[in-house]
Specification:
12% strand; alpha/beta
């Protein structure tokens, strides 16, 4: 599966004002334990020879401000990273797109919190077109949302107020 997360359009303080870190932890566990299980069943139904489930995660930082990188955000990163450590072979790769200039410093800190095998599967792109090229190298254009130059449905309207 391919998961898109438009982090640059999300307000971490806003999220933590409507939920708690333990509830986020529960969501991360649910995602790995149950959502992935149903995706695996669907894949086996589509292809009986299916044997391995790896995801591609697209993290779009367009619009991310440096003020969003704070202790609360880092706590959520640590939490999701710890849970992901229980499922080390489920990440095919992660593309971090539209990384702002300040992110390279933050990435150096974040990278130390992540298992080295996982960190090796993460690519960071500041240049939008280079990121889209990497995305097209992994996924068919017809499966890429129009937000990223593909032919599939837009995902950004789901984030509109």
């Amino acid at each position: 599966p391919v998961n898109y997360f438009m982090a640059g359009q999300i307000n971490p303080e806003g999220i933590l004002s409507v939920t708690t870190a333990p509830k986020l932890e529960g969501f991360f566990w649910w995602s790995f334990m149950h959502k992935m299980k149903s995706e695996m069943k669907a894949a086996v139904k589509k292809d009986p020879d299916f044997v391995r489930m790896e995801g591609i995660n697209i993290l779009d930082l367009k619009g991310l401000s440096s003020s969003a990188i704070n202790s609360d955000t880092m706590s959520v990163v640590k939490l999701s990273s710890k849970i992901a450590d229980f499922f080390p072979e489920t990440l095919h790769c992660m593309l971090i797109l539209n990384a702002p200039a300040f992110f390279s410093f933050s990435w150096g800190l974040i990278k130390k919190l992540i298992d080295p095998r996982t960190a090796a599967r993460i690519q960071v792109f500041s240049n939008e077109e280079k990121g889209r090229q990497a995305l097209r190298g992994l996924i068919g254009t017809d499966e890429i949302p129009r937000d990223y130059g593909g032919g599939d449905n837009f995902i950004s309207p789901a984030l509109s107020p």
